[in-house]
Amino acid sequence: MDRSYAGELDAADPLAGFRERFVRDDPSLIYLDGNSLGPLPRATQARIAEVVGQEWGTGLVRSWNRWIGLPLGVGDMLGEHLLGAGPGQVAVCDSTTINLYKLACAALDARPGRGVIVTDDDNFPTDRYVLQGIAAERGAELRMIRTGMDSGVSAGAVRDAIDERTALVSLSHVAYRSGALASMAEITDVVHRAGALVLWDLCHSAGAVAVDLDGSAADLAVGCTYKYLNAGPGAPAFLYVRRDLQQHLRQPVWGWFGQREQFDMGPAYDPAPGIGQFLTGTPQIIGTVAVAEGVRVLAEAGIGRLRAKAVALTSYLIALADAWLAPHGAAVASPRQDDRRGAHVTLAHPEAWRISQALIAEGVIGDYRAPDRLRLGPVPAFTRFADVWDAMDILRRIMALQTYRYASPSRTVVT
Ligand SMILES: Cc1ncc(COP(=O)(O)O)c(C=O)c1O
Prior knowledge:
- The chain is an alpha/beta fold.
- It is built from 13 helices and 13 strands.
- It has helices spanning about 5-10, 40-60, 65, 70-85, 95-110, 125-140, 155-160, 185-195, 245, 285-300, 305-325, 350-360, 385-400, and strands at about 30, 90-95, 115-120, 140-145, 165-170, 195-200, 220-225, 235-240, 330, 345-350, 365, 365-370, 375.
- β12 and β13 form a beta hairpin.
- The radius of gyration is 22 Å and the shape is globular.
- Pyridoxal-5'-phosphate (PLP) binds near residues 95, 97, 176, 203 and 224.
């Protein structure tokens, strides 16, 4: 409970040096929102200046020769270092929402005669909405698993929800609100036994949890790059299609970047072989470059060490929350078991909104999620144990003195 213990943990942290790889303009700010928008790597700042100034500014259209391979090249890097995916299975493109639509449609088409899509009622809104839209478009049934807000989805609940009519099960690997971590290999196996395909949303996993897509025999996955991959707001997302499935799936957006011999400008759509057919239109180059730099920093840190630090930071945070915040009515609303938790911790408190605003006013950035949750997401390559101690110390003061009562109850600020 003593701050000196945090200092000892920081002194022994093998990733401590990585903090300097990120821009830190305000040294007093404690940033615990890596689960929403990761910090800016210095290398990204320099590389983007180069891409804009030289590759675009000087090279102009000639630079497409080097840019055109980025979506699949960066996808391979991401797959190898952070997703447990061999080459030729990951592409960096579009947004998570769009990629989810593409892969969910492709999966349904690959299971003709099966009209049921399964997801869970605590899945991230965009996932539920996209699946609702697809179900409405196709007259399919969308079946919702009822999932505890704090516990996440279990293999047993998936088993109970699926049958021989199920075409697709689409779930988040790490739940956006509680951080609950689903068992990818076990659930994938359950889904396969029913003859269906599984589509994982890895937004809160990539860069934070050691994902093993190939080892879990996962079929499909999507995820964003602006959280733990630190690629910046609106940077392109990624998708994964297992190699042996690629030739059997056809995505619904028939764009020219997914075309075989694209520059022949042929009369009819003829999808490229391999993962390339899942691209759509002109890739967003500046964002894709930022994904490459974000992945490079994390690859150097190593996903094993990043995961170990995420576990250490979050279990430390939970211990402090139990000791200091529970007496003020805040309950840990994330799994306590380390292997069931992603990289953030959620606290439940009826005044979570005003507490989150009071916390920001004191220089600690976390975020609020409805209905009454405060999320605290340390950045494994960036956050110090002393930051966690300081943030929790500020939080206990805010709760003990109820200074949050001066914060506005109006929920207009988005962080
Ligand atoms: C689990 C999950 N899926 C999807 C998204 C967002 O998708 P998009 O980048 O398309 O807005 C988020 C954003 O926080 C998320 O947490």
